[in-house]
Design goal:
single chain, 179 residues, Lipocalin, eight-stranded antiparallel beta barrel, 2 helices
Length: 179
């Protein structure tokens, strides 16, 4: 009788022990900056779709290129038509893992350094990247922040202004608050 009770208790607790939580947002933010001394080339996208699994560290970001907003409409048009070809290749995405997810305590508020490893696909060209960042836990809700550089030509993005009015490297800044 006592053994049966212990077995039932373990069977009931087992799903809770192995449960994982998927955090998500559709209002994450990514900023893009490829400014030079000659021109300010900066945009923001506040419609970033991202999901993260707490136990495995698996993480995905998906971005519609046409959702980047520039201060200058003509610059936004050139970004979509001449450089990113957003009508033909509408999305950019990152798929990978937070490699040190076990160092994050989702039950304790704090700012935890994280390392990501995965594939960033922009303009239809996949590249392996391994940026760092922070996972901040506030009242049980995670947020990811981070900044990294990409070499624009590595993603097949070319044009006469790159290296002149457009920097060779773009600074990407991420800020996603998950539910």
């Amino acid at each position: 009788m006592k053994i049966t009770f212990i077995f039932l208790l373990l069977a009931c607790a087992s799903p809770a022990l192995h449960a994982q939580k998927i955090y998500a947002t559709q209002t994450g933010q990514i900023k893009f900056n490829a400014s030079t001394p000659l021109e300010t080339i900066a945009a923001v996208n506040n419609q970033v779709d991202s999901k993260m699994v707490d136990k495995t560290g698996q993480i995905v970001f998906s971005v519609l290129i046409k959702s980047f907003r520039f201060e200058n409409q003509l610059m936004e048009d050139h970004f979509n038509e001449n450089y990113l070809e957003s009508s033909k290749i509408p999305k950019a995405e990152f798929k990978g893992f937070i490699t040190n997810i076990t160092s994050v305590n989702f039950l304790k508020d704090g700012k935890y350094p994280i390392n990501l490893n995965g594939t960033l696909t922009i303009h239809g060209v996949p590249q392996k990247i391994a940026p760092g960042g922070f996972l901040v836990i506030t009242k049980g809700k995670p947020a990811i922040t981070g900044t990294f550089n990409i070499h624009i030509k590595d993603y097949g993005i070319t044009g006469s202004y790159i290296g002149g009015k457009i920097a060779n490297d773009a600074i990407i800044t991420i800020n996603c608050n998950y539910e």
